Write the structure tokens for this entry.
Amino acid sequence: MLGAADGAAQISLRKYRNVHKLDISPLAALTDLRLMYAGPADISCLGGLPLERLEIHGGTFEDLTVLKSMPLRFLTLRSQGTPLDYSILRGMPLAMLSVDGKQLVDISFIKGMPLKFPSVTKSGVRDFSPIAGLPLIDLEFDSEAKPDMALLRSIPALKNINSKPAAAYLK
């Protein structure tokens, strides 16, 4: 679907299996891309795009290096089983990050990010200490994760935890 979102170019591709074959040259102004159920994907072809929002749902991809070349502020990666090296995201100016996968156990790469809306679900993450000092507003994680309540209470802007008001969750 090609359209406009807040004056920016946006594309959503569903069940597109040949991401690596995309000729993106005509899309030089694209700022919002959603790839749904993309299958095996080499996303290196996205390099050079001024993407501020990227969502990849259901794909199998391995190399996230190309993301460093983008001014991303909103990123969703819903991989299907392939272990990913999320450390490439370290230092990126992400306000929203949504990642999942049992292979994700370490979120130290988020330390120092301007994250307001992190979602780390269906993961093996148990150490949430890297969120200390972040300007979080909403936080989503697996119910089994059990982050330190004192850590959560130390985040003054935190309004919602797992879709509940933070005050109610922290009782």
